[in-house]
């Protein structure tokens, strides 16, 4: 892709399992990682164990600046989840979060049978909720134990909307004292207060 007036577009490349350690070099905000994400080494390990997980690197001018993870819902063949989403701290607040969501929608909408894209977000994350609403995500369910919101994007195949299938916990994940799902038990919601880092629903690791 060519640049326009010095603007370099984001480039998305799937990172193979042999190269997953690249994401551990990202300069993420340590507080965001501790409170909202998970250690990058644990995310890499989870993706390696999940045969259907895809980790997509986000590059700007040849530099890896972030990533996101997508995976299918084991209990609903028509649904895919947007999992972990992270941007290096030097590239937050530049509109990249919205661009990444557009890329996620376009990527998953091309998958045969994918009718819905879902993610989890805490109710108090108003900035993220506004961003998701602008990109066509709507509230479809609330997890009763935690109050986490299930947001869904309809890929527009014309099929009537159905009920949200229950979320499932997979092996290797745990709930903290508040009921939030984590790779390891600790306090903290799924989503950052900004688009810098964001946890999607785990629970699909084998």
From TrEMBL:
It holds the Pfam family Acetyltransf_1. The lineage of its organism: Bacteria, Pseudomonadati, Pseudomonadota, Alphaproteobacteria, Acetobacterales. Residues 10-156 form the N-acetyltransferase domain. Gene3D superfamilies: 3.40.630.30. SUPFAM superfamilies: Acyl-CoA N-acyltransferases (Nat) (SSF55729). This is GNAT family N-acetyltransferase. InterPro entries: Acyl_CoA_acyltransferase, GNAT_dom.
